[in-house]
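Translate structure to sequence.
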């Protein structure tokens, strides 16, 4: 087990963690886009995939700015969010509307996790006087915040639509 005794080592550890998370998401986002029946939600996942691929590239640049080669470290946070999705999909049968609502919640949890990770990394990079790393990490952070706003907007619309069509939670038949 490596010993973390300096701010530089902690920064590198946290960088490996978010690098793992972003690389994981490059594999998960296409699946989420396929699972979503709502076109706007599906497009949001596809669009965020392109941003996530850029996040991976930015993180690789941050590794190089600190003189390290890009490496991942398993990220329990993202694995937990992924497991929650997988368990829900395996254990539940639901309408496409409810699945889309669940997917927006899963996306929101992921964005919050990433925002927290990037916020901490930006602070650490500033403290370590790594201006290039700060700039790259802030770029990723800004896009994660924008992605969260987009998914929250979609979620509100989906939930409003679902509440309008289901009343007490039971499906209504349409005449």
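Result:
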């Amino acid at each position: 087990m490596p010993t973390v005794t300096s701010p530089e080592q902690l920064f590198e550890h946290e960088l490996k963690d978010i690098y793992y998370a972003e690389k994981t998401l490059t594999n998960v986002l296409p699946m989420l886009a396929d699972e979503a029946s709502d076109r706007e939600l599906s497009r949001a996942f596809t669009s965020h995939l392109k941003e996530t691929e850029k996040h991976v590239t930015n993180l690789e640049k941050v590794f190089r700015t600190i003189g390290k080669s890009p490496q991942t470290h398993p990220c329990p946070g993202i694995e937990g969010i992924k497991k929650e999705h997988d368990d829900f999909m395996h254990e539940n049968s639901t309408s496409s509307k409810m699945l889309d609502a669940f997917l927006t919640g899963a996306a929101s949890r992921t964005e919050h996790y990433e925002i927290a990770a990037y916020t901490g990394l930006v602070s650490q990079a500033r403290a370590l006087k790594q201006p290039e790393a700060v700039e790259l990490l802030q770029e990723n952070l800004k896009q994660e915040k924008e992605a969260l706003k987009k998914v929250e907007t979609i979620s509100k619309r989906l939930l409003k639509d679902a509440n309008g069509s289901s009343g007490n939670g039971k499906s209504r038949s349409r005449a």
